[in-house]
């Protein structure tokens, strides 16, 4: 039940829905998973998988609450979360943003310096570019780090797409997204857009802007959220993206459900899956422009 709630919460576009669903899922946790059976090899592997699932869920929940403007209440919680994960750059980045938004710029920089020193002393490596860029943004008090506007709920969004607020200090990025969508809508070439940056900087909000604008223009939108648990759930993102269309009775004969061809030129085995996905995407894009959105890509 907890895993089903986690999957539903991570796929929710609305940060308020994401936060409430993931909170409910984590409340079902009681101590270490499978603690009494962890000495048995299969259960040991499952216990490790469930522990990684809980850790990844706590991080996504923190991101959602940060998007909702709850940075001050997040600071002590993130402080305790980073302790058992001293090398987790995403959690440290979230803590830095929460501290900065709480008016504690010096403390935010101290978190970065402690992590940098630990990585250098114990692993001989530097923090990765997104975290270094976050430090620079905090030093120069980048307006992009400031809390965004109030989040529009899913209910209000269905009433009026125009109710979606403009993103603070993201005019250039939203303009680029709109350009790509308009080009696809008018029959020009599609495009690939990568949004990169440290945790809490607003990547999910930009993707949400793309999704809302695409739906407004009449696109078919397929969405998924990546996870570091992809190794435990083969093709997890692919399932999130396309399973709803394969199950939708309104979608006529989706390619993924077509029987295997007897033609020797048709890919077989594992390549048949890739071939079917190609034709499913082809079928979807032939009816309307298609937007594929993957958040937190690994």
Produce the secondary structure layout:
Blueprint: H1 2-11, H2 15-27, H3 41-67, H4 71-82, H5 89-101, H6 105-123, H7 129-139, H8 154-159, H9 171-185, H10 203-217, E1 220-225, H11 236-247, H12 270-287, E2 290-295
Parallel strand pairs: 1-2
Helix pairs in contact: 1-2, 2-3, 3-4, 3-5, 4-5, 5-6, 5-7, 6-7, 9-10
Question: What can be said about this structure in brief?
Answer:
The chain has 298 residues and is mainly alpha-helical. Helices cover 57% and strands 4% of the residues. It folds into two domains: 144 residues, Tetratricopeptide repeat domain (Serine Threonine Protein Phosphatase 5, Tetratricopeptide repeat, Alpha Horseshoe); 135 residues, no CATH class.
Q: Would you list the SSEs in sequence order as H and E?
A: HHHHHHHHHHEHHE
Count every beta strand, where a strand is a DSSP E run of 2 or more residues. Answer: 2
Radius of gyration: 21 Å
Predict the CATH topology of the largest domain: Serine Threonine Protein Phosphatase 5, Tetratricopeptide repeat
Question: What would CATH call the class of the largest domain?
Answer: Mainly Alpha
Characterize the largest beta sheet: strand count, sense, and whether it forms a barrel: 2 strands, parallel
What is the averaged pLDDT score?
76
Query: What number of structural domains do the residues give?
Result: 2
Helical proportion, percent range: 55-70%
Number of helices: 12
Low-confidence segments, given as residue ranges, are 150-166, 253-260
Corresponding CATH architecture of the largest domain? Alpha Horseshoe
Beta-strand percentage range: under 5%
* Spatial ordering of strands, largest sheet: 1-2
User: What is the distance, rounded to the nearest whole angstrom, between the alpha carbons of the first and last residues?
Assistant: 25 Å
> What characteristic shape results from the CA principal axes?
globular
| CATH level-four homologous superfamily name of the largest domain | Tetratricopeptide repeat domain
Structural class by sheet pairing and helices: mainly alpha
């Amino acid at each position: 039940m907890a895993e089903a709630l986690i999957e539903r919460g991570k796929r929710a576009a609305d940060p308020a829905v994401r936060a409430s669903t993931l909170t409910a899922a984590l409340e079902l946790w009681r101590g270490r998973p499978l603690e009494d059976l962890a000495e048995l090899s299969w259960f040991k592997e499952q216990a490790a998988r469930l522990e990684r699932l809980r850790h990844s869920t706590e991080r996504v929940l923190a991101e959602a609450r940060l998007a909702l403007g709850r940075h001050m209440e997040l600071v002590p919680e993130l402080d305790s979360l980073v302790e058992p994960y001293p090398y987790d750059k995403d959690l440290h980045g979230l803590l830095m943003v929460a501290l900065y938004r709480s008016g504690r710029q010096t403390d935010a920089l101290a978190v970065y310096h402690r992590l940098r020193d630990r990585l250098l002393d114990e692993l001989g490596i530097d923090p990765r570019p997104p975290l270094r860029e976050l430090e620079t943004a905090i030093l120069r008090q980048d307006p992009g780090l400031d809390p965004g506007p109030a989040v529009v709920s899913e209910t209000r969004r269905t009433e009026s797409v125009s109710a979606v607020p403009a993103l603070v200090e993201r005019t250039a990025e939203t303009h680029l997204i709109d350009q790509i969508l308009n080009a696809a809508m008018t029959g020009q070439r599609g495009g690939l857009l990568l949004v990169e940056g440290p945790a809490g900087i607003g990547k999910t909000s930009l993707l949400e802007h793309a999704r809302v604008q695409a739906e407004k223009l009449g696109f078919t939108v397929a969405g998924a959220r990546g996870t570091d648990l992809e190794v435990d759930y083969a093709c997890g993102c692919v399932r999130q993206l396309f399973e709803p269309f394969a199950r939708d009775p309104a979608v006529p004969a989706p390619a993924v459900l077509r029987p295997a061809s007897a033609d020797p030129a048709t890919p077989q085995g594992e390549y048949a899956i890739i071939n079917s996905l190609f034709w499913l995407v082809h079928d979807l894009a032939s009816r309307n422009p298609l937007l594929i959105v993957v958040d937190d890509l690994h």
